[in-house]
Structure prediction request, 337 residues.
Amino acid sequence: MDKTYDSLHMGRSSIDLYSNDIGTPFVDISSYAAYVGGSPTNISVGGKRLGLNTALLTAIGDDPVGDFIVNFLNNEGVETKFIPRKAEHRTSAVVLGIEPPDKFPLVYYRDNCADINLNIDDVLNAPITDCKVFQFAGTNLSLEPSRSATMFAAEQAKQAGAKVVFDVDFRPDQWHDVRAFGVIARSVLPLVDVVIGTEDEINAAMLRDVSQMNLTHSQVSDTKVEGDSRSGIEFMLTLGPDAVVEKIGPEGARIHLKDGEVIDAPGFPVEVTNILGAGDAFGGGFLYGLVNDWGWYKSARLGNACGAIVVTEHGCANFMPTMEEVLKFVEPFGGLG
Prediction:
């Protein structure tokens, strides 16, 4: 397709404050490093560093935090001219503790945040019909007006011939009920070509039997969503997508296709510093492959390599690799093929 942008990413953006005291309990943290974050924002940076022409549709407040985000994105070369400022709302923030290998306490500050107030007019002002890939995150769907704006954008992008990619991005504390997340996630799937998610996220999206999840809001925030991801994926593929890309951590990724084929793309062994951002780094790499017709396996391998590199670093968007860095990293492992 002859489109101006390789990919357009819609959803949240934030200032991310990551603990400098790695291994220290959250209550004892003494200082933080400030980065740019938010899943679609991170993915737009990851794709840009690899060589895609990316644009971002998020919203920021008329505040210094919004200035911080736009300045970083402009320096990266991500197109920011479609990002509205909403003076009545604030740019969001995230605070993260880092206690490898498995404790990464995360706190969102999203009350009255700007990006969840993206609306249909904001979509109409963005290049929804002028991109090869339109990618959005599940958190977009948690509240109005972002929910209907995102569904409208997916509808418009698909009609214009773009590949629509749904990063499930399930954040339990952003939903009043995990079952509500499933209802909304399933409703958007007819507009989606590719789904990307972890086993937990896929199970949450496909949780149809409400008797399986009788938990309070506080309980679900700390609970794995159990289920048979394979049956969930099979059902998901009947609702519209051509492929479900299941992120399986250190093992890499598994691509489930509508015709029943399953493609395993192994990961790369590394020592983990911070797992937050691994999925977004994967997304940037995978979408690069999708835009450039690399095929499912090689696209996922590129995503795995990007994720492996980022988990060795302190933050996310600020540490996304370039293609040169990726190729150097994968060389000892026999490359991406």
Remarks:
- The first helix runs from residue 39 to 50.
- The radius of gyration is 18 Å.
- The domain at 5-333 is CATH 3.40.1190.20 (UDP-N-acetylmuramoyl-L-alanine:D-glutamate ligase).
- The chain has one domain: 5-333.
